[in-house]
Design goal:
This protein has 5 helices and no strands. It is mostly helical and about 130 residues long. α1 crosses α3, α1 (about 1-35) runs antiparallel to α4 and α1 packs parallel to α5.
Protein backbone atom coordinates (compact mmCIF):
# COMPACT_ATOMS: atom_id res chain seq x y z
CA UNK A 1 0.00 0.00 0.00
CA UNK A 2 2.94 2.39 0.23
CA UNK A 3 3.18 2.77 -3.57
CA UNK A 4 -0.04 4.87 -3.83
CA UNK A 5 1.20 6.93 -0.90
CA UNK A 6 4.51 7.60 -2.65
CA UNK A 7 2.56 8.60 -5.74
CA UNK A 8 0.64 11.07 -3.59
CA UNK A 9 3.90 12.58 -2.36
CA UNK A 10 5.02 13.08 -5.96
CA UNK A 11 1.65 14.55 -6.95
CA UNK A 12 1.76 16.90 -3.97
CA UNK A 13 5.32 17.89 -4.84
CA UNK A 14 4.18 18.61 -8.40
CA UNK A 15 1.39 20.78 -7.03
CA UNK A 16 3.93 22.60 -4.87
CA UNK A 17 6.19 23.21 -7.88
CA UNK A 18 3.36 24.62 -9.98
CA UNK A 19 2.24 26.72 -7.01
CA UNK A 20 5.72 28.19 -6.75
CA UNK A 21 5.50 29.26 -10.40
CA UNK A 22 2.47 31.37 -9.50
CA UNK A 23 4.58 33.18 -6.92
CA UNK A 24 7.47 33.69 -9.32
CA UNK A 25 5.27 34.98 -12.11
CA UNK A 26 3.03 37.27 -10.16
CA UNK A 27 3.87 37.82 -6.49
CA UNK A 28 7.63 38.33 -6.63
CA UNK A 29 7.56 41.17 -9.19
CA UNK A 30 4.65 42.87 -7.41
CA UNK A 31 6.36 42.71 -4.02
CA UNK A 32 9.68 43.94 -5.39
CA UNK A 33 8.07 46.89 -7.18
CA UNK A 34 5.96 47.79 -4.16
CA UNK A 35 9.01 47.99 -1.89
CA UNK A 36 10.85 50.16 -4.40
CA UNK A 37 13.05 47.50 -5.93
CA UNK A 38 11.93 47.98 -9.53
CA UNK A 39 15.54 47.84 -10.68
CA UNK A 40 15.76 44.35 -9.21
CA UNK A 41 12.73 43.30 -11.26
CA UNK A 42 14.41 44.66 -14.39
CA UNK A 43 17.54 42.70 -13.52
CA UNK A 44 15.52 39.53 -12.94
CA UNK A 45 13.67 39.91 -16.23
CA UNK A 46 16.96 40.53 -18.01
CA UNK A 47 18.52 37.44 -16.45
CA UNK A 48 15.37 35.30 -16.75
CA UNK A 49 13.25 36.48 -19.70
CA UNK A 50 10.93 33.53 -19.07
CA UNK A 51 9.40 35.59 -16.24
CA UNK A 52 7.78 37.80 -18.86
CA UNK A 53 6.31 34.77 -20.61
CA UNK A 54 4.93 33.47 -17.29
CA UNK A 55 3.46 36.86 -16.40
CA UNK A 56 1.80 37.22 -19.80
CA UNK A 57 0.22 33.79 -19.40
CA UNK A 58 -0.79 33.98 -15.77
CA UNK A 59 -4.22 32.47 -16.44
CA UNK A 60 -2.51 29.40 -17.92
CA UNK A 61 -0.05 29.26 -15.00
CA UNK A 62 -2.87 29.39 -12.47
CA UNK A 63 -4.92 26.89 -14.49
CA UNK A 64 -2.08 24.35 -14.45
CA UNK A 65 -1.47 24.97 -10.74
CA UNK A 66 -5.17 24.54 -10.02
CA UNK A 67 -5.33 21.34 -12.07
CA UNK A 68 -2.33 19.92 -10.20
CA UNK A 69 -3.94 20.84 -6.89
CA UNK A 70 -7.17 19.16 -7.95
CA UNK A 71 -5.39 15.97 -9.06
CA UNK A 72 -3.30 15.89 -5.90
CA UNK A 73 -6.31 16.54 -3.69
CA UNK A 74 -8.33 13.78 -5.36
CA UNK A 75 -5.45 11.32 -4.98
CA UNK A 76 -5.06 12.23 -1.31
CA UNK A 77 -8.78 11.83 -0.75
CA UNK A 78 -8.79 8.47 -2.52
CA UNK A 79 -5.86 7.17 -0.44
CA UNK A 80 -6.98 8.52 2.93
CA UNK A 81 -8.57 5.22 3.98
CA UNK A 82 -5.89 2.90 2.64
CA UNK A 83 -4.65 0.69 5.45
CA UNK A 84 -1.04 0.98 6.53
CA UNK A 85 1.01 -2.24 6.83
CA UNK A 86 1.03 -4.16 10.12
CA UNK A 87 4.84 -4.02 10.34
CA UNK A 88 5.65 -1.12 12.74
CA UNK A 89 8.46 0.27 10.58
CA UNK A 90 6.33 0.21 7.42
CA UNK A 91 3.35 1.64 9.32
CA UNK A 92 5.52 4.54 10.53
CA UNK A 93 6.72 5.14 6.95
CA UNK A 94 3.13 5.03 5.75
CA UNK A 95 2.01 7.63 8.28
CA UNK A 96 5.04 9.81 7.52
CA UNK A 97 4.21 9.75 3.79
CA UNK A 98 0.60 10.67 4.52
CA UNK A 99 1.65 13.64 6.65
CA UNK A 100 4.21 14.74 4.06
CA UNK A 101 1.66 14.56 1.26
CA UNK A 102 -0.93 16.48 3.27
CA UNK A 103 1.60 19.13 4.24
CA UNK A 104 2.80 19.61 0.67
CA UNK A 105 -0.80 19.85 -0.52
CA UNK A 106 -1.75 22.41 2.13
CA UNK A 107 1.34 24.49 1.42
CA UNK A 108 0.60 24.40 -2.29
CA UNK A 109 -2.98 25.54 -1.75
CA UNK A 110 -1.82 28.46 0.40
CA UNK A 111 0.72 29.50 -2.23
CA UNK A 112 -1.87 29.44 -5.02
CA UNK A 113 -4.26 31.56 -2.95
CA UNK A 114 -1.51 34.11 -2.22
CA UNK A 115 -0.54 34.15 -5.89
CA UNK A 116 -4.13 34.57 -7.03
CA UNK A 117 -4.65 37.45 -4.64
CA UNK A 118 -1.52 39.18 -5.96
CA UNK A 119 -2.26 38.46 -9.62
CA UNK A 120 -6.00 39.02 -9.85
CA UNK A 121 -7.42 40.74 -6.75
CA UNK A 122 -4.80 43.36 -5.86
CA UNK A 123 -4.75 44.92 -9.36
CA UNK A 124 -8.52 45.41 -9.13
CA UNK A 125 -8.30 46.92 -5.65
CA UNK A 126 -5.45 49.28 -6.56
CA UNK A 127 -6.85 50.27 -9.95
Amino acid sequence: MIDPLRRNVWLSAGALFTSLTTLVCCVLPAVLVSIGAGVTVVGLVTAFPQLVWLSERKVLVFGVAGAMLLISGLALRHARNFPCPADPALAAACERLRRLSAGLFAGSAVLVVIGALAAFVLPILSG
